[in-house]
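Quick question, first post here. What does this chain look like in 3D?
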Amino acid sequence: MLNAKNIILLAILIVLSACSSLKTNPLEYKGKSIIFGNGGGFAGIEQSTILLESGHIYQLENMRTTYQLKKKLEKREVEQLFSILSTLELDQVELNSPENSYKYIEFCDHGSTNRLAWSSDSAPNEIQILNRILHKLAQ
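> Answer (accepted):
Ran it through. Tokens below.
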């Protein structure tokens, strides 16, 4: 029979397990991922978000040393997004024209990385649309 003391202990265990941190660092994720955000300015700090192929979206903070889970997308949405990227070969594009303030998208695939960086509207339309979609999904 459960008494009040056991119920309180059980509740504490449930709360602690719900608050447990991620077992692996999203920056060490072995599957495909997309890191996107903006940076530059006086302090040169980047604001980054990472979307893992698993659907988890993390906000990266403190120069990518800490992270916070924002949400998890449905498998169908993530598969569709990565399929579009593969079809359009946006992960193969070369774009490195950042200025003082810039936006970026970084494609990571099993150790291989391709980073696109641009200022204002200097990126091709497809990349600007992808950037807006990623930010919308992360909200």
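The two ends are 45 Å apart (CA to CA).
DSSP finds three helices and seven strands in the chain.
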